[in-house]
Amino acid sequence: MMVGTNTATSMFAGAVISWGIIGPVLVRTGVASGVKIMGPDYTGPWEEFTTYMSMNLEDPVNKPSPRYWLLWPGVLLMVAVSIVEVLCQYRLLSIAAKVLTHRICASFCSACQAIGMKATWIERYSESYDDRSDDTADESQAIKPWMWISGLVLSIIVTCLSCGLQWGMPLSMTIVSIIMAVILTVLAILSTGMTDMTPLTAIAKSSQLVLGGMTRGDSWTLAKAQTLNSLGGAVAAGVANQATDLTADFRVGFLLRTPPRAQWIAQLLGSGVAIFLAPAIFLVFASAYPCILDITAETCAFSAPSVSAWRAATIAATSPTLPIPKSSGIFAICITVIGCLVTIMKHFYLVKERQKYRLYLPNFMTLGLMMVIPQPCIGTAMMIGAIIALLWKRLRPASYEEYLFSVLSGMIAGEGIGGVINAIVAIAGVQAGTGIGCPAGMC
Questions:
Q1: Which pLDDT score is estimated for 383?
Q2: Whole-prediction pTM value?
Q3: Average pLDDT over residues 253-273
Q4: What is the DSSP letter of 48?
Q5: pLDDT score recorded for residue 334
Q6: What is the pLDDT of residue 430?
Q7: Residues 276-291: what's their mean pLDDT?
Q8: 52: how many CB neighbours lie within 10 A of its CB?
Q9: Alpha helices per DSSP H over 168-304
Q10: How many other CB atoms are there within 10 angstroms of residue 320's CB atom?
Q11: 257 vs 340, which has greater pLDDT?
Q12: Residue from 324, 429, 340 nearest 87 by CA
């Protein structure tokens, strides 16, 4: 209900095209096939019960499932379009680069002055650029450099220690991951501010490609290389995700005139709780639904589309040869070129008086997402919600403005709480309920 008609329509179209047209055509022509859920030796009423969402990699090139075939076009489309979206904002990127360079030079000059050195030309440059902001907070409420620098240093140390001790990741590779994370995080923050879209997929995959080159040259086993590759991508994506969330929070605080230091302390306390709470909740869900950690599971209550995208990128970055069906690769290139061209046209042709036509262009990011998510019902639900919101806004605009976010907040909170309760019930082994409508007794 909150995403808008363009995004919802694109998601619904992506679901229909992917799972209502391409998937059946792949099966009908023999390009892709399904897997019998009950096993080859089962005989009974559900003998022909087949899933086409399998990620079985016994022979993915010659006998892929429709899900595996569609995975590569979806991932490539999302990565390419998100990168093009960022590059199309080159003017703002140049401004951000100037401000960042100025701040670095100013900090360097301060450090030189502290040790009795002078850097005249750097001082001249740092004083030549006017980067005054609209920040109205007084000095007593400002966040001092030591407050965030100490946290940054501590985070780097903990990252290096945990990656090295728990996963055996070399220090050099960890440092490269952190450097990539810093560079890509700046782009992520800019992209989020300019397009309201955080390109985490592109960030993680870019880092994975760089680390893939590092692991290929060493004597790593394939499994070890894939572990290190995924870990490096997780570092970059994690930093970018947290940084963009924090920037958005501080933006809200700025608009509400919240003292920055008070908000910084609140964020620190909240993060301290979340460090322990988030893994605990994951363990609850992993215990209730073991399939989310089972790569061979053919069915699961959670589709985990990001896991599939990460796995695909890891395999592509570390395997000697790409395990991609030829037809899937060709389609991936074609749909990605179209998506990039449409994105470029949106930014450079549909401007000024033509900008109103942007609403009718499909959102190729969501199209790619629906190729990765093996649940067409999500696109359908998004479309239904968008239609309800559109009718509500047209028929009762005052009520829409007053109650929309309250209703949506209640729905989101209710779904989250309900999911936790369902997980606890599953762990407790409660058998009450009915399986009516569930095939093969899967509920």
A1: 92
A2: 0.75
A3: 85
A4: T
A5: 95
A6: 74
A7: 82
A8: 19
A9: 171-195, 200-216, 222-255, 260-288
A10: 7
A11: 340
A12: 340
Cα(267)–Cα(40) distance, integer angstroms:
53
Token pair listed for 413: 């909170």
Task: Give the mean model confidence (pLDDT) for residues 18-36.
Answer: 91
The residue behind tokens 């001092």 is 144
**End-to-end Cα separation, the chain, in angstroms:** 29
In the chain, what's the furthest Cα-to-Cα distance? 85
238 backbone dihedrals φ, ψ, rounded to 5°: -65, -45
Please give the distance of CA 206 from its chain centroid, rounded to a whole number. Answer: 13
* Alpha carbon distance 436, 443 (integer Å): 9
Q: Which pLDDT tens digit goes with each residue over 56-99?
A: 667 778 888 898 899 889 888 887 888 888 788 778 777 777 77
Q: Half-sphere exposure (CA, 13 Å, Cβ side) for 49?
A: 17
Structure tokens given for 106? 């100013």
Residue 316 token pair: 């592509």
- CA 309 to chain centroid: 10
**Residue 442 class from Cβ within 10 Å (0-12 exposed, 13-18 middle, 19+ buried)?**
exposed
Above 70 in pLDDT, residue 158? yes
75 and 41 Cβ atoms separated by less than 8 Å: no
Task: Please give the radius of gyration of the chain, using alpha carbons only, rounded to the nearest integer.
Answer: 25
Pair 253, 260: CB distance under 8 Å: yes
DSSP 18: I
